[in-house]
């Protein structure tokens, strides 16, 4: 169940040059409308980039010319971003575990870092994966941008009273 | 955004590749090709200067790991110059800070 209302839906061709477009749109929304610190916006940009890259790869593997669809849902306490592809789906619990960084074999793993990265960057991550496609839901907690400091002080006083 | 790559071979020991812009699935292949070309030309001690990298994701990271592997298998090394928190964070999260030699300045990187 998604909390909030959809504020953006962006459908882009499944091509690498569009990943930057998606992350910039999501970051602009988060910067302009949400109360998130700059480093959290960077985290979200990175997470969106990883999810879009995986979505493009999933469509390519399935031989599909389907778009990647990014949607943003805003609720009072959170921003949820969904990146959807039409690929063959995957089993999140079956993801391979990388060797320890001290293991020389670690250098054989040039790929597959995306989902562990997303997991450590966002506040909540969940997958809806079927043979018809995968949706990656990423949540960042943080209220709407409250405007200037005066507004915030007035609001806190009013709420306290 | 276009990825900028400048190769500096003026130092007799180290070849420096200065990377500018965003390093993601679109731009990373360009860096991969540049690293492969440098190794095939015989460069063995490489330093990638990432100070002007504005964005790095796991695809860009994968290319750097691939470059390091290629160089080490040829008795070489790939060191990095980076002080940007947003870029260093990606190395931190993935544990790769202990795999790469990361310096704050080019001089430090060359001092080994």
Task: Produce the secondary structure layout.
The complex is a heterodimer of chains A (161) and B (112).
Chain A: E1 5-12, H1 19-33, H2 38-61, E2 68-75, E3 78-84, H3 114-121, E4 124-130, E5 133-141, H4 149-160
Antiparallel strand pairs in A: 1-2, 2-3, 3-5, 4-5
Helix pairs in contact in A: 1-2, 2-3
Chain B: E1 4-8, E2 15-23, H1 28-40, E3 45-56, H2 58-72, E4 77-81, H3 85-94, E5 101-103, H4 106-111
Parallel strand pairs in B: 2-3, 3-4, 4-5
Antiparallel strand pairs in B: 1-2
Helix pairs in contact in B: 1-2
Task: Describe what this molecule looks like in 3D.
The complex is a heterodimer of chains A (161) and B (112). Chain A has 161 residues and is of the alpha+beta class. Chain A has helices at residues 19-33, 38-61, 114-121, 149-160; strands at residues 5-12, 68-75, 78-84, 124-130, 133-141. In chain A, strand 4 and strand 5 (133-141) form a beta hairpin. Chain A starts with a strand and ends with a helix. Chain B is α/β, with parallel strands linked by helices. Chain B has a 5-stranded mixed sheet with strand order 1-2-3-4-5. Chain B is globular. At the A-B interface, helix 1, helix 2 and helix 3 of A face helix 2 and helix 3 of B.
Strand content of chain B: 25-35%
- Mean pLDDT metric of chain A: 85
Alpha plus pi helix count of chain B: 4
| Element-by-element helix/strand order of chain A | EHHEEHEEH
Number of helices of chain A: 4
Order the strands across the largest sheet of chain B as they lie in space: 1-2-3-4-5
Radius of gyration of chain B: 13 Å
Provide a short characterization of the protein structure:
Chain A is α+β, with helices and mostly antiparallel strands. Chain A is built from four helices and five strands.
Keywords:
heterodimer; A: 161 residues; 4 helices; 5 strands; 24% strand; B: 112 residues; alpha/beta; 30% strand
């Amino acid at each position: 169940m998604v909390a909030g209302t959809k504020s953006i839906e962006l459908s882009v061709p499944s091509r690498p040059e569009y990943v930057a477009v998606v992350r910039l749109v999501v970051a602009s929304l988060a910067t302009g409308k949400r109360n998130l610190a700059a480093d959290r916006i960077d985290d979200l940009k990175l997470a969106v980039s990883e999810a879009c890259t995986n979505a493009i790869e999933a469509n390519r593997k399935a031989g599909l010319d389907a778009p990647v669809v990014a949607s943003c849902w805003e609720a009072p306490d959170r921003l949820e971003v969904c990146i959807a592809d039409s690929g063959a789906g995957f089993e999140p619990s079956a993801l391979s575990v990388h060797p320890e960084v001290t293991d020389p074999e670690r250098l054989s793993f040039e790929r597959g870092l995306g989902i562990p990265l997303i997991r450590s960057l966002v506040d909540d991550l969940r997958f809806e994966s079927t043979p018809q496609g995968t949706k990656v839901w990423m949540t960042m907690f943080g209220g709407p941008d409250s405007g200037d400091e005066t507004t915030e002080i007035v609001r806190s006083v009013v709420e306290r009273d | 955004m276009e990825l900028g790559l400048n190769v500096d071979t003026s130092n007799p020991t180290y070849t420096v590749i200065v990377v500018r812009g965003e390093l993601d699935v679109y731009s990373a292949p360009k860096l991969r090709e540049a690293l492969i070309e440098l190794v095939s030309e015989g460069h063995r001690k490489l330093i990638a200067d990432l100070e002007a990298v504005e964005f790095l994701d796991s695809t860009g990271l994968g290319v750097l790991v691939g470059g390091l592997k290629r160089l080490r298998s040829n008795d070489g090394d790939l060191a990095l110059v980076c002080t940007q928190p947003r870029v260093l964070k990606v190395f931190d999260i993935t544990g790769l800070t202990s795999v790469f030699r990361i310096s704050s300045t080019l001089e430090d990187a060359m001092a080994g």
